[in-house]
Protein backbone atom coordinates (compact mmCIF):
# COMPACT_ATOMS: atom_id res chain seq x y z
CA UNK A 1 0.00 0.00 0.00
CA UNK A 2 1.43 3.38 -1.03
CA UNK A 3 2.09 5.98 1.66
CA UNK A 4 -0.50 8.75 1.80
CA UNK A 5 1.28 11.15 4.17
CA UNK A 6 0.73 14.46 2.39
CA UNK A 7 4.12 14.79 0.71
CA UNK A 8 4.65 15.63 -2.97
CA UNK A 9 6.81 13.12 -4.90
CA UNK A 10 9.37 15.91 -5.39
CA UNK A 11 9.66 16.35 -1.62
CA UNK A 12 10.08 12.62 -1.07
CA UNK A 13 12.77 12.45 -3.76
CA UNK A 14 14.73 15.36 -2.25
CA UNK A 15 14.57 13.84 1.24
CA UNK A 16 15.50 10.39 -0.01
CA UNK A 17 18.61 11.77 -1.74
CA UNK A 18 19.74 13.63 1.38
CA UNK A 19 19.08 10.65 3.66
CA UNK A 20 20.80 8.13 1.39
CA UNK A 21 23.92 10.33 1.18
CA UNK A 22 23.92 10.51 4.97
CA UNK A 23 23.48 6.74 5.21
CA UNK A 24 26.49 6.27 2.92
CA UNK A 25 28.59 8.64 5.06
CA UNK A 26 27.66 6.67 8.16
CA UNK A 27 28.64 3.29 6.72
CA UNK A 28 32.04 4.62 5.66
CA UNK A 29 32.60 6.25 9.04
CA UNK A 30 31.47 3.04 10.78
CA UNK A 31 34.07 0.97 8.90
CA UNK A 32 36.74 3.57 9.65
CA UNK A 33 35.89 3.77 13.36
CA UNK A 34 35.74 0.00 13.70
CA UNK A 35 39.09 -0.34 11.92
CA UNK A 36 40.68 2.15 14.34
CA UNK A 37 39.09 0.31 17.31
CA UNK A 38 40.76 -2.91 16.13
CA UNK A 39 44.15 -1.41 15.39
CA UNK A 40 44.70 1.20 18.07
CA UNK A 41 47.91 0.69 20.10
CA UNK A 42 49.77 2.23 22.98
CA UNK A 43 49.68 2.66 26.74
CA UNK A 44 46.15 4.09 26.55
CA UNK A 45 44.99 1.25 24.30
CA UNK A 46 42.15 0.17 26.53
CA UNK A 47 40.47 3.55 26.96
CA UNK A 48 40.76 4.42 23.24
CA UNK A 49 39.52 0.95 22.29
CA UNK A 50 36.44 1.33 24.51
CA UNK A 51 35.75 4.94 23.51
CA UNK A 52 35.84 4.02 19.82
CA UNK A 53 33.45 1.16 20.54
CA UNK A 54 31.02 3.73 21.98
CA UNK A 55 31.46 5.83 18.84
CA UNK A 56 30.76 2.97 16.42
CA UNK A 57 27.77 1.80 18.46
CA UNK A 58 26.37 5.34 18.13
CA UNK A 59 26.89 5.16 14.36
CA UNK A 60 25.10 1.80 14.15
CA UNK A 61 22.09 3.34 15.94
CA UNK A 62 22.14 6.29 13.53
CA UNK A 63 22.41 3.99 10.50
CA UNK A 64 19.28 2.16 11.58
CA UNK A 65 17.43 5.41 12.23
CA UNK A 66 18.38 6.92 8.85
CA UNK A 67 17.43 3.79 6.90
CA UNK A 68 14.12 3.56 8.77
CA UNK A 69 13.42 7.26 8.10
CA UNK A 70 13.83 6.45 4.38
CA UNK A 71 11.41 3.53 4.77
CA UNK A 72 8.97 5.86 6.54
CA UNK A 73 8.91 7.85 3.31
CA UNK A 74 8.10 4.56 1.54
CA UNK A 75 11.47 4.64 -0.22
CA UNK A 76 14.37 2.21 -0.44
CA UNK A 77 17.59 2.85 1.49
CA UNK A 78 20.90 2.05 -0.19
CA UNK A 79 21.78 -1.48 0.93
CA UNK A 80 25.09 -2.24 -0.72
CA UNK A 81 28.68 -1.30 0.06
CA UNK A 82 29.14 -0.34 -3.58
CA UNK A 83 26.18 2.03 -3.28
CA UNK A 84 27.63 3.61 -0.14
CA UNK A 85 30.96 4.22 -1.86
CA UNK A 86 29.15 5.98 -4.71
CA UNK A 87 27.38 8.38 -2.32
CA UNK A 88 29.70 8.95 0.65
CA UNK A 89 31.21 12.32 1.51
CA UNK A 90 33.46 10.97 4.29
CA UNK A 91 36.90 9.85 3.14
CA UNK A 92 37.71 6.16 3.63
CA UNK A 93 40.88 5.00 5.34
CA UNK A 94 42.32 2.68 2.69
CA UNK A 95 44.18 -0.45 3.80
CA UNK A 96 47.25 0.63 1.86
CA UNK A 97 47.57 3.78 4.00
CA UNK A 98 49.53 3.50 7.26
CA UNK A 99 47.48 3.71 10.45
CA UNK A 100 47.99 6.80 12.61
CA UNK A 101 48.78 6.71 16.33
CA UNK A 102 45.88 6.64 18.79
CA UNK A 103 45.41 10.38 19.35
CA UNK A 104 45.60 11.09 15.61
CA UNK A 105 42.96 8.40 14.96
CA UNK A 106 40.60 10.22 17.29
CA UNK A 107 41.46 13.59 15.74
CA UNK A 108 40.51 12.17 12.32
CA UNK A 109 37.23 10.80 13.68
CA UNK A 110 36.57 14.20 15.26
CA UNK A 111 37.06 15.94 11.89
CA UNK A 112 34.77 13.40 10.22
CA UNK A 113 32.05 13.91 12.83
CA UNK A 114 32.35 17.71 12.36
CA UNK A 115 32.13 17.21 8.59
CA UNK A 116 28.90 15.27 9.07
CA UNK A 117 27.42 18.08 11.16
CA UNK A 118 28.27 20.64 8.47
CA UNK A 119 26.92 18.39 5.70
CA UNK A 120 23.64 17.87 7.57
CA UNK A 121 23.28 21.66 8.02
CA UNK A 122 23.77 22.11 4.27
CA UNK A 123 21.28 19.32 3.59
CA UNK A 124 18.65 21.01 5.74
CA UNK A 125 19.24 24.35 3.96
CA UNK A 126 18.96 22.57 0.61
CA UNK A 127 15.68 20.89 1.59
CA UNK A 128 14.25 24.17 2.85
CA UNK A 129 15.26 26.00 -0.35
CA UNK A 130 13.44 23.63 -2.68
CA UNK A 131 9.89 24.64 -3.45
CA UNK A 132 7.09 22.26 -2.52
CA UNK A 133 9.39 20.17 -0.37
CA UNK A 134 8.00 20.75 3.07
CA UNK A 135 9.05 17.45 4.61
CA UNK A 136 8.89 18.52 8.25
CA UNK A 137 9.51 14.97 9.49
CA UNK A 138 12.86 14.69 7.70
CA UNK A 139 13.94 18.24 8.60
CA UNK A 140 13.15 17.55 12.23
CA UNK A 141 14.97 14.19 12.05
CA UNK A 142 18.07 15.91 10.64
CA UNK A 143 17.96 18.66 13.27
CA UNK A 144 17.85 16.04 16.03
CA UNK A 145 20.78 14.28 14.40
CA UNK A 146 22.83 17.51 14.46
CA UNK A 147 22.19 17.81 18.19
CA UNK A 148 23.30 14.21 18.79
CA UNK A 149 26.46 14.66 16.70
CA UNK A 150 27.29 17.95 18.42
CA UNK A 151 27.31 16.02 21.70
CA UNK A 152 29.63 13.43 20.15
CA UNK A 153 31.86 16.28 18.87
CA UNK A 154 32.13 17.68 22.39
CA UNK A 155 32.97 14.25 23.86
CA UNK A 156 35.71 13.60 21.31
CA UNK A 157 37.18 17.09 21.87
CA UNK A 158 37.12 16.52 25.63
CA UNK A 159 38.83 13.16 25.16
CA UNK A 160 41.58 14.71 23.04
CA UNK A 161 42.25 17.37 25.67
CA UNK A 162 42.99 14.97 28.52
FE1 LIG B 1 35.38 -4.80 19.63
From TrEMBL:
It holds the Pfam family Ferritin. Residues 19-162 form the Ferritin/DPS domain. GO terms for molecular function: ferric iron binding; oxidoreductase activity, acting on metal ions. InterPro entries: DPS_DNA-bd, DPS_DNA-bd_CS, Ferritin-like, Ferritin-like_SF, Ferritin_DPS_dom. It comes from the Bacteria. PANTHER family: GENERAL STRESS PROTEIN 20U (PTHR42932). Belongs to the Dps family. This is Ferritin/DPS domain-containing protein.
Amino acid sequence: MAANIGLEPKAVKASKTVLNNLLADHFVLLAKTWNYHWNVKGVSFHSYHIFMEELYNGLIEDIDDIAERIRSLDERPIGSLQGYLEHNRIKEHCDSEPLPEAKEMLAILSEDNDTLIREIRKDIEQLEKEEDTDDAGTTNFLEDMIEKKEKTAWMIRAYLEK
